[in-house]
Structures are given as C-alpha cells and as structure tokens.
Design goal:
2 domains; mainly alpha; about 70% helix
C-alpha cells in the first residue's frame, strides 16, 4: 500500500500546498485530508493521486508504485534529436555510478560481512546503475533510432 508520506511529500512540493491541491482536485482541504489519512475508510482514487503528482511536479507516486512492484521507475530524458553528446554524458554517468557501487562493495565486504544498512546502500547504488543504463537505452533509441536518423538526414539535406 502506498503510504501517506508519499502524498504528504507531493502536497508539500506543490506550490500553494494543501489549499491548491484540494482546489485542483475539486474538494475541500478537509476532504483531501480525510482521503490522505484514510478517515472513515475514505481513500484517494488513482486518477486523483496522479493529479496530485502532476500538480507537485514530482514522480514520487510512480516511483513508489514501481518500488512496491519490485521495479524501478525510469524517467526518460528530454533530448533534442541528434544530441549525441547526451549519450556520451549518460555513458559517463554510468561509469561514475559503477565506480560508486564498486567502491561501496569493496568497503562493505572488507570485513566479510554486510550489515543491513550497508546492504541498503548497495541496493541504492545498484538502483542508480540500473536507472542510468535504462536511461542510456532510451536515450540511444531517441537519438539514433530510425526517426531520429531520418530527421538528421533531412536537416542535413536542407542545409546543403
């Protein structure tokens, strides 16, 4: 179940806070609070939760849904067609994240035991590596995929 802390964080991130979010959702602040705190078995509908996320400008809800489902939410990067430098920057980010994971792994396994808190750090490191690799795949498709290649070719032909 999605904890109220996710909704509280999204409402806190929204400009205008509770009042603004409640107004956008078409309810009073009290009605919104009742749904967030699940008073009298009231709950938020998914469409309302997604609206709150949109208002907040965050991805906290979908990140939590992905986490609870055993997955990872990957926000696809916004890039211009043909932005090959973005692909190279993403490769550099992957190497940095792998280095962090490797360093933490070496540190945490030096005593032949990994504590729960160390394991959580390793999981977080691994999460960042996976996210960066998934973003690289999406970015590569966006920059080098057939529609992108066609657009680059057309732009080059117009310049010639």
């Amino acid at each position: 179940m999605i904890g109220r802390q996710i909704f509280m964080a999204m409402i806190g991130a929204a400009r205008g806070g509770w009042e603004t979010v409640a107004a956008y959702c078409g309810m009073s602040v009290v009605a919104l609070e009742n749904r967030i705190y699940q008073k009298k078995d009231q709950r938020l509908h998914l469409d309302t939760a997604m609206l709150i996320q949109e208002i907040s400008g965050t991805t906290l809800l979908v990140e939590e849904i992905a986490r609870l489902s055993g997955g990872v939410f990957i926000r696809l990067p916004d890039v211009e067609v043909g932005d090959r430098d973005a692909v190279l920057r993403k490769w550099n980010e992957i190497y940095i994240e792998l280095g962090r994971l490797s360093g933490d792994f070496n540190t945490f396994t030096a005593d032949d035991e990994v504590t729960e808190s160390e394991f959580e750090v390793l999981q977080s490191d691994a999460h960042r590596v996976v996210r960066a690799v998934e973003e690289l795949a999406a970015l590569t498709h966006r920059v080098y995929g057939r529609p992108a290649a066609t657009a680059i070719a057309l732009a080059s032909a117009k310049e010639a």
